[in-house]
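Purpose: get a first structural picture of the assembly so the mutagenesis plan has something to point at.
Setup: two entries, given in the order below. No constraints added.
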Amino acid sequence: MKALVINYGVGNLYSISSALKRVGFEVIIDNKPRKDYDLIVFPGVGAFSAVAEFISQYKDLFNDLRRSGTSFLGVCLGMQIMFEKGTEGKESNGLGWFKGIVDKINANVKLPHIGWDLVFEVKDSCGLTYGLDKKYVYYVHSYIAYPTSEDYVYMKSQYGIEYPALVCEKNVVGTQFHPEKSSSTGKIFLENLKGWIKR
Amino acid sequence: MTTKRIIACLDVKGANVVKGVNFLNLQFKGDPVSLASLYEEEGADEIVFLDITATIEARRALYSVIKDTASVLSIPLTVGGGIRTLDDVSMALSSGADKVSINTAAVENSQIVKKSAEEFGSQAVVVAIDAKKINGNWIVFTKSGTYNTGLDAIKWAKKVEELGAGEILLTSIDRDGTRLGYDLELIKKIVDSVNIPVIASGGAGKMEHFYDVFSLAKADAALAAGIFHDGIIKIKDLKSYLSQKGIEVRI
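Result (structure tokens, whole complex):
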């Protein structure tokens, strides 16, 4: 199975690539979309406005790939840019694949939120949540998605407020947590992901 | 609520993990890749690499060690020691570090903190503060604890938060290596002064010290090195102890 990790030009792509390799993906890192991959990954590095600007150059191509059935995984910020709009940096548009906006965690808590928290399964019908309910996963973020529909929210976590931890619709999945830094629990998710792509 | 984190720190010299007393009598403790994965297996929540020599040659060795470690590790990795420029930050991150820890350079040129946070996000920027108590006040020291900056540690902590640091790694020079316990008073003061996570460091000698630093000083994470390398405390045992005492940790 072949995965393409999109390089926006900043940050650590090593962890996500290594984690995908460990569960058996063949991984290529590139700064533009390509066809013929089973999975395209938006990694969780950078700031929303900068990444949105980068992604917007290839918006049509990403939309085509999504329509033609290529699977997508967005991690943290990579999930956030799949929503309609973000307010980090300057307000900018995301891909709009999930309805809702991305904004600061609106609670009286320390930001960034850094550390391990429990994820809770809301529903299990997407096949990605197997073995993850009430497990600890690693978070590092100040922003969360505020979805306008609960239809695509499969897991949640809580930090001052409840927020989506795993969203999924058809061939697109996003996690607010970092599977590549969530030790053995992250590995379970990535194994699920493999099965989900094959389905 | 977010669990309290246990962080294992590895002092890296070239491609080896070493530990000394007061920076002297360095002893070989193992190879960083295997130690880091051992600690992950035992339940460490994060790993910190501190490059204690930071010469150009050692730096090159460090980047390859970061790469090797990142390819086996699936918990966060922070790299510090000799990070002076935006290029250093970028090199460390693109080698597989999730965060960098900046100490001396932050004091000498605070813009490096601001610029790194803007470019890579606050979550990637840890400012390390080494503090020593002098006449009742905690003063910031740099250059591996040898240079008195005259800065007040509490004011400096607030300043680095403003500049965009995502976390503070706070070491008590007085307690470092003593195994007498964390400097609870210092840590509590800093925790109360900022609204970003604080990692306590310096002085861990027994399990009670971890309980105290979480319950009394309200630290978000506790870091230790020697006691883990020497097998005095096993991370697994430490976490079940803390959990029994009512501290939420990842088990």
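Residues 105 and 241 of chain B are 38 Å apart (CA to CA).
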